[in-house]
Sequence to fold (251 residues):
Amino acid sequence: MSLSPPDYTLLRCLRAEFTKLRGSLALLLCLVAPVAVAALMALIFNRHGGEDLPWRMYLLGNAATWAYFMLPMTITALTVLVAQMEHGPRMWNHLLALPLPRRHIFFAKTGAVMSLCAGMTVVLALLAPALGYLSDAITPDRALTGPVAWGELIGVLSRIYASAWLLVVIQLWAALRWRSFVPPLALGIGGTFVAVAATGSDLGPYFPWLIPTNALASDGSAALTALFIGAVGGAVCTIAMGLHLARRPAT
Fold:
């Protein structure tokens, strides 16, 4: 009995997405966003450093700033850039006519954006402590105190990353659905604005733009709820998006 060869179509689609991203503004955005957060927080904490500002507070401040504001806005811009690589030159006719499952095209785009988000998370995890050490070296009289909470920082950033999956898919779905960049930008800006106004609300763990922030919660159950909704909801929405957009006409 002969076995059919494995289907590597999705992997080829994912590789094609990374090829498109080479030299694009998306990569620059993914570098600038975590650098901006780490640099800003290092400056703020250096100005007020001392006995009452431990390393743990500094590192968690980086994570909170990332989850609360910079990550949602970066996801909005990143998904628009990824979608415009197809919308701009009107590549959908070519892509949807290829002899491969259409849903794989959209699954690959989701994988590419999530990979870029993972890269941004790693950059922030490395850069935040590095700039903390640098600021301490420049002004030792305002040095951060206590042990460096490496493990806690990695755990928190990992939860933020996984819980942002739902937000990534929602923004990518809108960016791929509409050729104009205005609807997904309006969605992202509006969602972030509502998130700022709704901070502390009981509905926070269920609102996609606040889910990454709720993954920071000191309450373990609240953090796990945000993580579960963000990750599982992201997986379900990825499948739904692929099936929905695969039905679009080639024109």
User: Anything to note?
Assistant: Residues 160 and 212 are 5 Å apart (CA to CA). Confidence is low (pLDDT under 50) at residues 1-6. The longest helix spans residues 102-138. Residues 25-245 form one domain.
